[in-house]
Amino acid sequence: MARPQTKRRGQRASARKERKNVPSGQVHIHASFNNTIITITDPTGHTLCWGSSGSAGFKGSRKSTPFAAQLAAQSAA
């Protein structure tokens, strides 16, 4: 029989990530024949957020369309 899980005292259920306020950044676009990946980085090169046609919900050959790339860019920003 499985034991019921108990919360430990003094610990949070999940740690929240801090949002950084970066005044400027760089956008890197990797466009292949199958997918488009957009990465937004700070000036030092650390990734702040990213998006791709696949993560926007497109599958198969629809990932390589310009409309899928547009939605991936909107989700990254």
Summarize the structure.
The protein has 77 residues and is of the alpha+beta class.
Secondary-structure element order, N to C = EEEH
Uncertain stretches of 5 or more adjacent residues = none
The radius of gyration is 19 Å
CATH superfamily of one domain: Ribosomal protein S11/S14
- Specify the CATH class of one domain: Alpha Beta
Principal-axes shape call: flat
**Broad structural category:** alpha+beta
What fold name goes in the CATH topology slot of one domain? Nucleotidyltransferase, domain 5
Through-space gap between termini: 48 Å
Summarize the main sheet. 3 strands, antiparallel
Count of helix runs? 1
- Strand % is 15-25%
Number of strands: 3
Mean pLDDT across every amino acid position: 82
Q: In which range does the helix fraction lie? A: 10-25%
Tell me which CATH architecture of one domain applies here: 2-Layer Sandwich
Main-sheet strand order equals: 1-2-3
Structure in words:
There is one protein chain. The chain is α+β, with helices and mostly antiparallel strands and about 80 residues long. The protein has a domain at about 25-75: Ribosomal protein S11/S14 (Nucleotidyltransferase, domain 5, 2-Layer Sandwich), CATH 3.30.420.80. It contains one helix and three strands, in the order E-E-E-H. The chain has one helix at about 65-75; strands at about 25-30, 35-40, 45-50. It has a three-stranded antiparallel β-sheet. Strand 1 (about 25-30) and strand 2 (about 35-40) form a beta hairpin. The protein is flat. The N and C termini lie far apart (about 50 Å).
